[in-house]
């Protein structure tokens, strides 16, 4: 496993982390807590030090599983990044997609309340990283979310402040780094072989200010593992039924053909591993957080850290 500093102020982290959305037990189909815990243990065994979660993942269950891991293995060298801003605490009705009645809440009062609840669930005294969870731009143009992060830092409840950039808003929200460069230690960004909008404006700004970059959705919800086809379908309890509609899936699969020369260049590596290497090859990117539900997936994901970044010749194969 390779390690890097997460920006100029962030902690040292593994270049491959563990994305803990799926183990929350919601929106990714059925999960088994025993299997999920084995996956978490495997991550530490493989040298993973960054675990990314959110309070809303399984309505707190993902954080609870991570707390169990910490209880069994200790906290030394483990960096936990969580998120807040999606209010599920009073959600007791499901919407027509079965997601639950979640609403964005970025007031100072709510964010401090949410952070304190994450502290309790995780069983820690300080959150290593707290990220605003993909807010709409109008929320971020208000003072309250930033004042909350400042207060939480001042009170010692969080060590580092982050922002999870809303998907497909990478350029639109890039100016926030100008306004909050002194407060933001890291950002989390949707970025992968087929979704590269962040390269245009956001990444140069992150480099300018020394803000760490965590890459999320590096395998595009599993599409870049090579296990899907243009006709793949998902169960009703799997968010990919909506985020990877048949139309989107066919479009992605068509575009994916352009990356075949890159995958062919590394026949000893899986499609997923080459895709993950891409995500840490941009100079602005420090670590990627592929999701995993099993120890086998963790092993495959973690192994590609030692393969290192792709070469300039590799990236030429992808074009612009």
Could you outline the blueprint of secondary structure elements for this entry?
Elements: E1 3-5, E2 12-14, E3 18-19, H1 33-45, E4 50-52, H2 61-73, E5 79-84, E6 86-87, E7 103-104, H3 108-122, E8 127-133, H4 137-140, H5 144-154, E9 158-164, H6 176-179, E10 186-190, H7 202-209, E11 212-216, H8 240-243, H9 246-256, H10 260-265, H11 271-279, E12 287-288, H12 295-303, H13 312-316
Helix pairs in contact: 1-2, 1-12, 3-5
How would you briefly describe this protein structure?
The protein has 320 residues and is an alpha/beta fold. The strands form 3 sheets. The protein has an 8-stranded parallel beta sheet, with helices on one face. Helix 1 crosses helix 2.
Describe this structure in words.
Helix content is 35%, strand content 15%. It is globular. Helix 1 packs across helix 2 (61-73). The strands form 3 sheets. The chain has an 8-stranded parallel β-sheet with strand order 3-4-5-8-9-10-11-12, with helices on one face. The chain has a two-stranded antiparallel ribbon with strand order 1-2. With 320 residues, it is of the alpha/beta class. It contains 13 helices and 12 strands.
């Amino acid at each position: 496993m390779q390690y890097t500093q997460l920006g100029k102020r962030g902690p040292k982290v593994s270049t491959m982390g563990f994305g803990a959305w799926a183990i929350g037990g919601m929106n990714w189909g059925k999960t088994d807590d025993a299997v999920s815990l084995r996956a978490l243990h495997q991550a530490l065994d493989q040298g993973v030090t960054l675990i990314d979660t959110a309070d809303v993942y399984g309505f707190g269950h993902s954080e609870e599983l991570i707390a169990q891991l910490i209880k069994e293995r200790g906290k030394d060298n483990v960096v936990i990044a969580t998120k807040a801003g999606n209010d599920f605490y009073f959600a007791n009705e499901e919407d027509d997609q079965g997601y639950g009645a979640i609403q964005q809440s970025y007031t100072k009062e709510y964010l401090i309340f949410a952070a304190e609840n994450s502290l309790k669930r995780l069983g820690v005294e300080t959150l290593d990283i707290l990220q605003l969870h993909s807010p709409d731009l109008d929320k971020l143009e208000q003072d309250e979310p930033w004042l909350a992060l400042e207060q939480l830092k001042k009170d010692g409840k969080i060590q580092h402040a982050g922002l999870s950039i809303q998907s497909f808003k990478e350029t639109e929200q890039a100016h926030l780094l100008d306004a909050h460069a002194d407060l933001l230690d890291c950002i989390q960004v949707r970025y992968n072989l087929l979704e590269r909008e962040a390269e245009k404006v956001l990444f140069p700004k992150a480099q300018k200010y020394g803000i760490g970059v965590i890459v999320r959705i590096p395998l595009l919800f599993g599409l870049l593992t090579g296990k899907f086809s243009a006709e793949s379908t998902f169960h009703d309890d799997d968010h990919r039924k909506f985020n990877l509609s048949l139309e989107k899936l066919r479009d992605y699969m068509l575009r994916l053909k352009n990356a075949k020369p890159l995958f062919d260049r590394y026949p000893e590596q899986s499609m997923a591993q080459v895709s993950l290497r891409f995500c840490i090859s941009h100079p602005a990117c420090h670590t990627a957080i592929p999701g995993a539900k099993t120890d086998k997936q963790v092993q495959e994901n973690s192994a590609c850290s030692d393969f290192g970044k792709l070469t300039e010749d590799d990236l030429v194969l992808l074009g612009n």
